[in-house]
Design a protein that fits this description.
- By secondary structure, the protein is α/β, with parallel strands linked by helices.
- It is about 40% helix and about 15% strand.
- The strands form 3 sheets. It has a 7-stranded parallel β-sheet with strand order 3-2-1-4-5-6-10, sandwiched between helices. It has a 3-stranded mixed β-sheet with strand order 7-9-11.
- The protein binds 2-amino-3-ketobutyric acid.
- 2-amino-3-ketobutyric acid binds next to loops.
């Protein structure tokens, strides 16, 4: 089938790596990037600008292109969400609702990004199950639980083919994350290479689920390409790879940058990190559509440092 694909949030941390992969698979002319404020000068491909909260604008875009798939990635992250709770709700929930409505009316396959932020202090911290208590304390987590429930509702009520992943902290070198609690796991690489030192905003024993971006993008495409009958979760799949403490990451980076010094000065983001799981059970994703991660902590660290050094040298 000839695919026409829309990606929202195409220049964010995930989008900037997913869009080129989709372009390779489906052709540049078949992947439309819907930017908002920040549009990179060197972007090559089909580009539109617009606001995901504007139903009329979105309907016109769908009329123009006749999309067959949508990757709805546009979202405010956890730390910035606490600063702007109303905007977080508007973008993360009202924005999603528009895509659920349009995609179910037009029978379009939809991917939506959820997060480990759906879990909270009452969820089990170790090996957090797919089905468990979801009582997040951040507005970001609340928007993601609401979004997941809406996805399931639209699937059951209108037959919408909606698929979603609970992303852990994502580690990547192409585009920096903006406004998340797990951002320290990316920032530390930049600072280690540039300055040889880093002040980390969570404590050294903070342990969170993480994933290298190559795995995250591969997992996203695997889920979207899976047969509909194999998808048993219409809220959002637990999606895991690694878990490590901030100190373990520091020690792994120090194998490559021996002079690295890290201070730990927790700020308000620690409160969010403390409510998220240490490790996640993603066996349902592994069983349903064959998910398996490739990058462990040593490989990811090696790749990050090599790629960032090359990027910074340019
Ligand atoms: C954040 O820290 O807000 C995100 C996430 C885990 O969803 N990286």
């Amino acid at each position: 089938m000839h695919e026409k694909i829309l990606v929202t949030g195409p220049f964010g941390q995930i989008g900037s790596e997913l869009v080129p992969k989709l372009q390779e698979r489906y052709g540049k002319e078949n992947v439309v990037a819907l930017g908002h404020r920040h549009i990179p000068d060197d972007f090559q491909g089909s580009l539109e600008t617009g606001d995901v909260r504007d139903m009329d604008e979105m309907k016109k875009l769908f009329d123009k292109y006749g999309f067959t798939q949508v990757y709805h990635l546009a979202s405010l992250l956890s730390a910035v969400g606490e600063k702007k709770p109303e905007l977080a709700w508007d973008v993360n929930v009202n924005g999603l609702k528009i895509f659920l409505d349009i995609c179910s009316e037009r029978n379009i396959k939809l991917f939506w990004a959820s997060s480990i932020a759906v879990f909270g202090p009452t969820s089990p911290m170790e090996n957090t199950p797919q089905h468990t208590i979801l009582e997040p304390t951040s507005i970001y987590g609340i928007t993601k639980v609401t979004g997941e429930l809406l996805c399931k509702y639209y699937h059951e009520r209108y037959g919408l083919d909606v698929r979603s992943l609970r992303y852990p902290g994502l580690i990547s070198w192409k585009e920096e994350p903006g406004g998340g609690t797990t951002d320290y796991a990316v920032e530390i690489f930049y600072e280690a290479i540039e300055e040889g030192k880093y002040t980390c905003f969570v404590s050294q024993e903070t342990k969170l689920p993480m994933m290298y971006m190559d795995d995250a993008v591969r997992g996203t495409l695997m889920l979207m390409e899976a047969e509909p009958d194999d998808i048993t979760i219409r809220m959002s799949y637990n999606h895991a790879a690694l878990s490590f403490t901030a100190k373990e990451l520091e020690e792994e980076i120090r194998k490559h940058i021996p002079e690295l010094r890290v201070d730990y000065v927790p700020d308000e983001r620690q409160n969010i990190a403390d409510t998220w799981p240490d490790t996640i059970d993603d066996s349902t994703a592994r069983k349903d559509w064959g998910w398996d991660h490739e990058f462990d902590l040593p490989n990811m660290t090696k790749e990050m440092i090599a790629n960032l050094k090359r990027k910074m040298a340019k």
